[in-house]
# Entry
Amino acid sequence: MSETKALVLFSGGQDSTTCLAWALSRFSVVETVGFNYGQRHRTELEARGRILTILRRWFPAWDARLGDDHMLDLDVLRQIGGSALTESMAIEMGKDGLPTTFVPGRNVLFLSAAAALGYRRGIADLVGGMCETDYSGYPDCREKTVAAVAEALTLALARRVTVHTPLMAVDKAQTWRLADQLGGKALVDLIREETVTCYQGDREHRHDWGYGCGVCPACDLRAKGYRKYVGA
# Structure
């Protein structure tokens, strides 16, 4: 069988960890890339190494496929500012109809940087956790946006760039279920114990669905999805 490669946009959160498992079940070589963009919740980035180490230890078949991990600096997003993810400001609905956690252009920059890295690594398949079903309304998470960026990158790099979004049309309960299907209880437990989705990066408060402040929109979505998944 010919070798197939993928590059996963891996933040250390629930969605990207599920997407990493999805990629490891489909590609023969999977590399990961994270982005340091000056985010306040740096605990998410700190979780990345722990998750990769545990994946390698608990899933030997995936360990054989898991390649290099990369970290890229996109501090320009912090310099632009104006987001509750990069500045100390309230998490609320903004005057523009979007939550203050929206970081303009973030996914466009992430995909562009990942595609450029993939170009140098000989990888044309990108995997991201964007979702337009259970999400905070970010316009750069929409399927049309991702498809348009993929087409622009295909033109810009003069080769086909494919962006896989396994979670695009599923809700958070289905995301938990997908993790269960891919890696069973072990993967679900890993996601509960190690991934960071909370906008506050809270690693002190433990819930049945994992760690988090329990009140931010990201925690709310994760908690509701988990309870629906377990049938509570």
The two ends are 43 Å apart (CA to CA). The domain at 5-197 is CATH 3.40.50.620 (Rossmann fold).
